[in-house]
Amino acid sequence: MSTYKKDDTEAQIENVKDVYSINSGQDIVSGHVGIDAEVADFFAEASDKPIVIDEATNKRLRWMVHKRVLLVMVVTYFAQTLDKGTINFASIMGIREDTHLVGQQYAWLTTCVYIAILAWEFPANRLLQRLPVAKYLGFNIIAWGAVLACTAACTNFAGLVTVRTLLGIFECVCQPAFVYLSTMWYTREEQALVIGTFYSMNGFQQCVGGLIAYGIAQIDGARLKNWQILFTLLGCITTVWGVFVLFWLPDSPIRAKCWSKEDKFLIAERVRKNETGIQNKEFKKYQLYEGLTDLTVWGVTIISFTNGLPTGGLGAFSNIILSEFGFTRLQTYLLAIAQGAIIMTFLFSAAFLSKRYNNKLLFAFLYTLPNVAGTIVFLIVKHSPKTKVGLLIAFYATQGFGAVAVLNLAVMTGNVAGRTKQVVASTLVFIAWAVGNAVGPQVFRDNDGPKYPKAWIVHLVIYGIQLLTIFLLRVRLMRLNVLKRRAQGLSDTPDKVEDAEHTENISHRHAFDDLTDQENPDFRYVY
Question: Residue 47 in contact with residue 170, Cβ under 8 Å?
Answer without folding.
Answer: no
